[in-house]
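Reopening this ticket.

The earlier resolution said the output was attached, but the attachment link was broken on my side. Pasting everything inline this time so it's all in one place.
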Amino acid sequence: MDLDIARKLYFIGDSPILRMSALTGKGVHRLQPMLVDSINDYHKRVPTRDVNRVIAEAQQKQPAGSGARVLYALQGANDPPTFTLFVNRELPQPYLRYLERCIREHFEFGSTPIKMRVRKRGD
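Inline output:
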């Protein structure tokens, strides 16, 4: 059943699925802790040195190819978490998604939306 729901709601990513009943109140107690966690993730702030460490590890495991690489990265804003990557040349979209996934997994952002901004050297 959860796979069927996940398939139908594929566009919301890996958001948690909570089963509850408005009629009986069963499972409602799980909603508030889940909301608190989501709100905390939305406001989460990550130190620049940690962002750069995760990006460096990701690039070491899987280089972008064609000489493209992230020179420096930081979290420029939160609400939602927004990361700015300073690069030497344009990053391919699949590689940008890879870096986003690395950030998401390492800092446990869960299903919180993340914005990724890319700035080429000299912009």
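Reporter confirms the inline version is readable. Helices lie at 2-8, 31-42, 48-61, 93-106. The longest helix spans residues 48-61.
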